[in-house]
Design brief:
Bound molecules: magnesium ion
Strand content: 15-25%
Number of helices: 10
Radius of gyration: 17 Å
CATH superfamily: HAD superfamily/HAD-like
Strand order of the largest sheet: 4-3-2-1-5-6-7
CATH class: Alpha Beta
Shape: globular
CATH topology: Rossmann fold
Structural class: alpha/beta
Distance between the termini: 6 Å
Largest sheet: 7 strands, mixed
Length: 211
């Protein structure tokens, strides 16, 4: 039994192979590579970047849903990992600076329902308005950490999955980290133990062995 673990995960670039927000902005020409690159500074709040970048992104719900179906790829083992968590009683949740407009079609396409926190995006004249009702006064990076700490207070060990600088606090608070991309490098630099996130099935084996 793995009942004493909980799993918390980022979405963009973690559950998906590429950051969906960035991919959308680049694909439709609403941001350039330099702007995207700068958004990954530890000093930039992802939620502020998202609001700004999408404010002028004139995209419809349908365009986004079609884009998700055609272009967005899930990391291998994701669906099986969700099933594993359900069967093993491991609470799993996603905490993301991404938005419902692309997350909903993604989960529909994969036939999974997961507890999650995403920004709320609404198509308005000339762009998309994004809000993060769950953040209140906290920033996203602290909120991710808070979700990890909440599980620890409940007596569970936490496995965290992420890929970005805004996942660093949560990673530092977790008991086991699977990191991709920039997060992996940041963890290495700061002496935070992290395994490379390639495929979710390795995490399932790890939880099975360590329960
Ligand atoms: Mg990410």
């Amino acid at each position: 039994m793995s009942a004493r673990w909980a799993a918390v995960s980022d979405f963009d670039g973690t559950i998906t192979l590429r950051d969906v927000g960035d991919h959308l902005l680049l694909h439709y020409g609403f941001a350039d590579k330099k702007t995207i690159e700068e958004s990954y500074s530890l000093k930039v709040r992802v939620e502020d970047f998202m609001k700004r970048a999408f404010a002028g992104a004139a995209l419809t719900e349908k365009t986004i849903a079609d884009f998700v179906r055609k272009k967005v790829k899930a990391r291998r083992g994701f669906r099986d990992f969700i099933v594993f968590c359900e069967e093993s009683g491991v609470p799993f949740e996603i905490v993301s600076g991404g938005v419902d407009l692309y997350a909903d079609p993604f989960f529909r396409a994969h036939g999974v329902k997961v507890r999650s926190f995403f920004g709320r995006a609404r198509v308005v004249k000339g762009g998309i308005r994004i809000t993060y009702p769950f953040l209140r006064r906290m920033d996203l990076s602290s909120f991710k950490e808070a979700r990890v700490l909440r599980q620890k207070r409940a007596g569970r060990r936490v496995v965290f999955f992420g890929d970005g600088p805004n996942d660093l606090k949560a990673a530092a608070a977790a008991d086991k980290v699977y990191a991709a991309g920039r997060l992996y490098r940041l963890c290495r630099e700061r002496g935070i133990a992290a395994s490379r996130l390639e495929d979710f099935s390795r995490a399932a084996s790890f939880l099975r062995k360590n329960s």
